[in-house]
Amino acid sequence: MPAIMTMLADHAARQLLDFSQKLDINLLDNVVNCLYHGEGAQQRMAQEVLTHLKEHPDAWTRVDTILEFSQNMNTKYYGLQILENVIKTRWKILPRNQCEGIKKYVVGLIIKTSSDPTCVEKEKVYIGKLNMILVQILKQEWPKHWPTFISDIVGASRTSESLCQNNMVILKLLSEEVFDFSSGQITQVKSKHLKDSMCNEFSQIFQLCQFENSQNAPLVHATLETLLRFLNWIPLGYIFETKLISTLIYKFLNVPMFRNVSLKCLTEIAGVSVSQYEEQFVTLFTLTMMQLKQMLPLNTNIRLAYSNGKDDEQNFIQNLSLFLCTFLKEHDQLIEKRLNLRETLMEALHYMLLVSEVEETEIFKICLEYWNHLAAELYRESPFSTSASPLLSGSQHFDVPPRRQLYLPMLFKVRLLMVSRMAKPEEVLVVENDQGEVVREFMKDTDSINLYKNMRETLVYLTHLDYVDTERIMTEKLHNQVNGTEWSWKNLNTLCWAIGSISGAMHEEDEKRFLVTVIKDLLGLCEQKRGKDNKAIIASNIMYIVGQYPRFLRAHWKFLKTVVNKLFEFMHETHDGVQDMACDTFIKIAQKCRRHFVQVQVGEVMPFIDEILNNINTIICDLQPQQVHTFYEAVGYMIGAQTDQTVQEHLIEKYMLLPNQVWDSIIQQATKNVDILKDPETVKQLGSILKTNVRACKAVGHPFVIQLGRIYLDMLNVYKCLSENISAAIQANGEMVTKQPLIRSMRTVKRETLKLISGWVSRSNDPQMVAENFVPPLLDAVLIDYQRNVPAAREPEVLSTMAIIVNKLGGHITAEIPQIFDAVFECTLNMINKDFEEYPEHRTNFFLLLQAVNSHCFPAFLAIPPTQFKLVLDSIIWAFKHTMRNVADTGLQILFTLLQNVAQEEAAAQSFYQTYFCDILQHIFSVVTDTSHTAGLTMHASILAYMFNLVEEGKISTSLNPGNPVNNQIFLQEYVANLLKSAFPHLQDAQVKLFVTGLFSLNQDIPAFKEHLRDFLVQIKEFAGEDTSDLFLEEREIALRQADEEKHKRQMSVPGIFNPHEIPEEMCD
């Protein structure tokens, strides 16, 4: 059967690809049908045949036949794909008469199909594709070869309404291509040219959009949709100096069919930020509000209307929230200063409040953005005005800023809204699922976490504006939980999440009074309510709140002690999630209040840490292993805070007593009979003990050396022994044995050993002591073992541990680098240089080790033999060619640092340049021009600019071309030009020459150099059209990161905006 299939496929392919005979349209239809409706091999072959045909340089000559005679819509789409391909990639090399022919043909086809209203509706997708093809032609032809395009399309539109409707869609697509998606698709110069052309000819389009007379609803709708796309770039006079705004409001806003798109247009206009059209903005606001009140009276229950509404009506509510949010954020002060508009402003805020109550997260997020903006602005205008509420204190406070007074009545309602709708914070693990059961949350809901952060920030600002009101709302609501009138899990949760979120926003005295009430009430509720689920919900809320108020706990020892004892109680509560949350809260409190646990507090006979260590057995007896590890880390932070070394050492001994007893007993047994290290239970115990040590060390830091020294040599012996067991098992049973539970447990012990050592080294503070006492036995145990093992049994942590040691010890370890390299370098490189996928962890860690040596022990690179150095360089080149982005980025960073390091070493530099410079250049160009590497463009630009600069400034004195010594700059210009011409033969000499010139002239200005590279990337695609929209992802990342850093700086100045656990350590305790 497969043989027959292959023959048929060959026959079909031969016939369809033979351009000397007429196209067999039925055969093509059959092949297309196979692709869409066939299966397996049949489908694959159809795909191959169609791909071959599409890639044939003359395939486009068949498109007219396909579109005219095929009865199959899918075949027609296929024909249009061929056409789109030739326009995007080969247009410039087609003879002019053929370009004109294709252009005429496409225009004719669009006119024919779109002039018939029934056809327009029936063949919507087909016409959509045709329109897109015309836009691709326009990007090549207009304005140079088709200067009359705008007047042509405007003229044609006057002949038929359905044709006009489609032309609107074409203009909309063109606008999007030029103004919204041009980046990375067309060069900067061309993009500017097209934008200028569109603005210059806009008056004709604008006249076409003046649709006062049309009775054709779909046409009006299409025109409004097109106008919406234009509004973000058209000259402002067309918006503010014509009747556009009033037409939108009076003629279209109150017509159900047009209200959504009209409101979107008004929102787009409202977002324009210019100062010279104040009156027009005021008119826009007042007229829109007048219409709104007729369409949606102020007493409407919008929440109910939304839940019962149709899609169209729900969209209107969402668009309304966008309009109000946009207008008020941009122009609120314009309206505020006009006394006659105060009432209208209050009505707008009233709408915002009503819409904020709608049970739809996306709409709530829009409203929240405005409330956040308003509260932050009112706070920043005068951060230190009194927070007491003038309405509550009975007298008018004169120091409340007038603008704040204007909004006060509204803000009461906003506070209530925030408290009753507060989202779930990340720390809360006990949740109610869709079935109404109380369970542990397993998947983090990032959407909910972000919503919480924004609501928290808003409520903090609102509390600063009037903490008395916030406290009143919360106290009343808590009272109603206790007396049962508002009791429900949801109500209790949102209230407690809100209480936890305002930590730091009240004065310390007020906070104390408020919190004492809250915690007493919650502890009372815990006693009063029966049933495991109720208790779990209340427990999670108590834990969340106490975790958020470290300032209060630090100042009130009795309370801190009560809270911690309560957490110990919850550690025995087996309800899902409660123990996890108790351990998480304990570690947070331990980090923020660490000193208080190691001091003797008033009224106590010993530090609380002693009590904990005396009872550690009973506290942790019901916890799971990973919870025990968290507990140990928490106690470690307390011990780390003890400054008296003798006391601290005594504490560490007592702290590690339990794990050490089990460890010692295993080691004693192993001394008598080493086979005990093959017993699954024993190996598992070893893994768990080491994990405890890892977490303890993370918290205690350098002083943990006393415990590490106690078990160090035994631990390394266990490492060697388990390693031999693993190797023996692999020899006996093959590599598959590494998947077995016992072998995996053995590897866990090896990994945790390495984690413990690297964790301690990275926190140690005496590099010489580490290098002399800890490193030699480690290298002895680990290196030869790594080299001898089969690849599948090599631990990637060996590489990361070496990297950490090099980073930490720097020059102290340079002498050991050759030994380390001998053992791990070549054997790891052979594991990862066959492809880009296998052994991902070894890959990442291998390059981290290279990076560490390159940064901290560079002289070691110069000391290794040349063959090994060449391997190092090859591996760096291999790294930056990776598709794994983290590896590629590391490779580029290593290369850049290496080049800078080499430049410092005068003796070695010149021979390095002579041997490797051109080679490196060639490889960098190969990734620059590879679209799967666009994310690295900034780094590519930095490296290339540095290399071209070296040559330009004469830093390379040796000849780069010893065979024919000429000036290096001239040689490099010719070398790069030839390199690019052979890779991209379709480029013109002038293009290449211009590009190479830029590489020299722009190498001092990295952003300009990068744009230069990007323009070149657009040009080389002219024969291989690919989507490069991701060329801009990286800028987006940087822009967002910068915005975030700016925001961070601003926020640090507002007390309470940061959750206490986000504040850097040195600023708290």
What is this structure's SSE topology?
Elements: H1 2-17, H2 25-37, H3 40-55, H4 63-69, H5 73-89, H6 96-114, H7 117-122, H8 124-141, H9 149-157, H10 161-180, H11 188-200, H12 202-209, H13 217-230, H14 237-240, H15 244-252, H16 256-270, H17 278-295, H18 302-308, H19 311-336, H20 342-356, H21 361-381, H22 390-393, H23 402-421, E1 430-432, E2 438-440, H24 446-465, H25 467-482, H26 489-501, H27 508-528, H28 532-548, H29 550-555, H30 557-570, H31 578-592, H32 594-598, H33 608-614, H34 616-620, H35 625-640, H36 645-655, H37 657-672, H38 680-700, H39 705-733, H40 741-763, H41 767-788, H42 796-809, H43 817-832, H44 840-856, H45 858-863, H46 866-880, H47 885-904, H48 906-928, H49 937-952, H50 968-983, H51 989-1001, H52 1006-1020, H53 1033-1051
Antiparallel strand pairs: 1-2
